[in-house]
């Protein structure tokens, strides 16, 4: 896949050419915006396309990293100047800021381009594919959603449309499939399946991103995903696509039994796919069971939520989903990076947030319950949902004679159950006693950090249980 391209211009001349082209594009879009009364969002997307086209030329303009690093730094300085200087913000900066919504997209864009060049500049196809998605799939989604969006869904910052997401997926598919098919030795079946998987995942990432961070997440995530999928054969790629679509469909169909709505459903499917693709079926069990059962195991709270017949009572978004999943995902990545079986601490990292959810819900449904009653009820329910399935996996490994199975399964079972009750009960007790300092006296982000810190510390107790096993 590596294809070093000789520079067509000296480095300084190339930098000057890129800066001049970007400046002309910005001025041209601004003039059209003012004279033709172009909507702010349309002007923003037009500049999005223009900058992406310019960025696509970088591997042919430069054969070293430093010019692109310089361009990235200059672009960030220019963006910050437009943000800070009122004359610039009200002039050419109107292309970026008249849309009136807070966004980090203008900062993320040059960072993404620079990072892509550093990791993939010597392979123009791998460099171009993420930029094509960034430059064309996102504007296509915005255009279709604005003109033809009839089926909205909620996001953390408003709404998007299903029509726009379908448009994003279609354009993303072409942006991956065509370059792989025409400019690489990748076979047609593999190219089709890679494009299909990337299109679905990129659409999910775009849907759950906030404040313009999709300008960073989509291109860098696409590069990492394509690089990994290129190592798979057609059969494995097809399996990934089938599982991914099945997870999205299951999350959507089961949403009536949850308090997760809108883009949060996509977030749940994304977390489930990460668990399955990086860990395997056993690692999918805790998040899948938590999503399926967290609203069912608290009947009184379920009734108070109006489930399953009140779709308006689904306040939890992608932020909430990622907050619940954050520590578990870190254990998953650690297990993958270190090649160590950390399934049990990972399960605890799902059980502890499930205990939090129980306390949150039952404090409203059963206000007479004290901290001890809340902690006990949350502990055994959370252990049953998140830990017991992992014990079933352990015993299957024992019966199958897997070398990694614990040599003393009974002792391991006792240790896992005991630590599971302690970790989940501890999480519930801490929240029941200190809910106001954690959730009321802090911002939403700070509250999520406190919860994640508690989950991280309690799930680490799983390492002690592994030592006993």
Give a description of the structure.
The protein has a two-stranded antiparallel ribbon. It is globular. It is mainly α. The protein has a domain at 278-469. The protein has helices spanning 11-35, 40-56, 58-61, 66-84, 86-90, 94-97, 105-120, 124-148, 162-183, 188-208, 214-229, 234-253, 263-278, 281-293, 299-305, 318-338, 343-365, 371-400, 409-440, 444-459, 461-468, and strands at 152-155, 158-161. A hairpin with a 2-residue loop joins strand 1 and strand 2. It is built from 21 helices and two strands. It starts with 10 loop residues before the first helix and ends with a helix.
Question: Which structural traits does this protein have?
Answer:
77% helix; 469 residues; two-stranded antiparallel sheet; globular; Dolichol kinase; single chain; transmembrane; mainly alpha
Short description:
This protein is mainly α. 77% of the residues lie in helices and 2% in strands.
Q: What's the arrangement of secondary structure elements?
A:
Blueprint: H1 11-35, H2 40-56, H3 58-61, H4 66-84, H5 86-90, H6 94-97, H7 105-120, H8 124-148, E1 152-155, E2 158-161, H9 162-183, H10 188-208, H11 214-229, H12 234-253, H13 263-278, H14 281-293, H15 299-305, H16 318-338, H17 343-365, H18 371-400, H19 409-440, H20 444-459, H21 461-468
Organism: Rubrivirga litoralis
Keywords: Membrane, Transmembrane, Transmembrane helix
InterPro entries: Dgk1-like
